[in-house]
Write a structure and sequence with these properties.
By secondary structure, the protein is α/β, with parallel strands linked by helices. The protein contains 14 helices and 10 strands. α6 runs parallel beside α8. The longest helix has 22 residues. Bound molecules: ligand C2E and magnesium ion (3 copies).
């Protein structure tokens, strides 16, 4: 068969490539259906201030409750829609769901900002800040400051002027930004200094291994040192143990998120977690003095 194809040099497409495109197309169609059928949902992971135990917010993380495959993490399906306009559709859906959840929590007396991940494609949509404004108007009962956005450093650096304009307009709406997965891209704090970023999130890959890998420790140390020099708050992702937390507080990082604190959970489990969290041994009494 390969031989046959080799002779037909005018056949510029490779049938296996063609098959791949078809699979991608089918996967995207299936994803659109999932979005329409409410098979997607948001999990929430708490973010805390380590020295006080204070819960400062939650991050919304998308999940796909697939009827056959079970609960799928974003790594399983976000690549299907990467760099397509479906990312915008998904992003709008996530923002809407987060605000609806925010209304429910406000009614229950839970007042925590929700951090929503925004894809580069979505952030750089021309009227992004208008869409955010309309979203806030649709949910006017939610106090301001309750929506925060997480963007990858790569998104911001791709078109820094456009990112700067959009982010500034959002900031005027009281929507602040975190730089996600900091340390994995090619930018540096010196570039990010230009952007209205209120929080730097140190990528979990460095944090997870910082206690066993000297290089990761060096990266974590330098990011914390620089962020403090630039007076930018930072949060460590991937805090899996109390030992991680102690080390981070000692280095001067105040905020954390990770399995050691809480796994991402369905919205209805959050109230109970909030009730139990203050009783967690060791976690609520970390002070810089103690651990140094
Ligand atoms: P992210 O924004 O960096 O989110 C943190 C990821 O780390 C989450 O993975 C979370 O479950 C995981 N994580 C939290 N604590 C720990 C820990 O202690 N150890 C380890 N090993 N992992 C931890 P998840 O939920 O699988 O999400 C993966 C990525 O998918 C996110 O990374 C984000 O980039 C993307 N994502 C998730 N939800 C959305 C969304 O609604 N929209 C967009 N555009 N992207 C999303
Ligand atoms: Mg994030
Ligand atoms: Mg991250
Ligand atoms: Mg990530």
């Amino acid at each position: 068969r390969a031989k046959q194809r080799g002779r037909n040099t005018f056949h510029i497409f490779d049938p296996s490539q063609d098959r791949l495109l078809q699979v991608r197309h089918e996967q995207r169609e299936r994803f659109i259906e999932a979005l329409r059928n409410n098979e997607l949902c948001l999990y929430y992971q708490p973010q805390v201030e380590m020295c006080s135990g204070r819960v400062v917010g939650v991050e919304a993380l998308i999940r796909w409750q697939h009827p056959q495959e079970g609960l799928l993490a974003p790594g399983m399906f976000l690549p299907i829609i990467e760099a397509t306009l479906l990312e915008v559709d998904l992003g709008e859906w996530v923002l809407e769901q987060a605000m609806l959840q925010q209304e429910r929590w406000q009614a229950q007396g839970i007042h925590l900002p929700i951090n929503v991940n925004i894809s580069p494609t979505h952030l750089l949509v021309e009227d992004f800040s208008n869409r955010i404004q309309q979203l806030l108007e649709r949910h006017a009962s939610v106090p301001s400051g309750m929506l925060k956005l997480e963007v990858l450093e790569t998104a911001a650096m791709h078109d820094i002027q456009a990112a700067l304009a959009t982010m500034s307009r959002c900031q005027e709406l009281d929507v602040s930004f975190a730089i996600d997965d900091f340390g994995t891209g090619f930018s540096s704090l010196t570039h990010l200094r230009q952007l209205p970023v209120n929080l730097i999130k140190i990528d979990k890959s460095f944090v997870c291994d910082m206690l066993t890998d000297e290089d990761d420790m060096a990266i974590v140390e330098s990011v914390i040192y620089m962020a403090n020099r630039f007076k930018r708050p930072m949060l460590a992702e991937g805090v899996e143990t109390l030992e991680h937390a102690k080390a981070l507080v000692g280095l001067g990082c105040a905020l954390a998120q990770g399995y050691g604190i809480a796994r991402p959970m369905p919205a209805d489990q959050l109230p109970q977690w909030l009730r139990n969290w203050p009783r967690r041994e060791g976690w609520n009494s970390l002070s810089r003095r103690q651990v140094n």
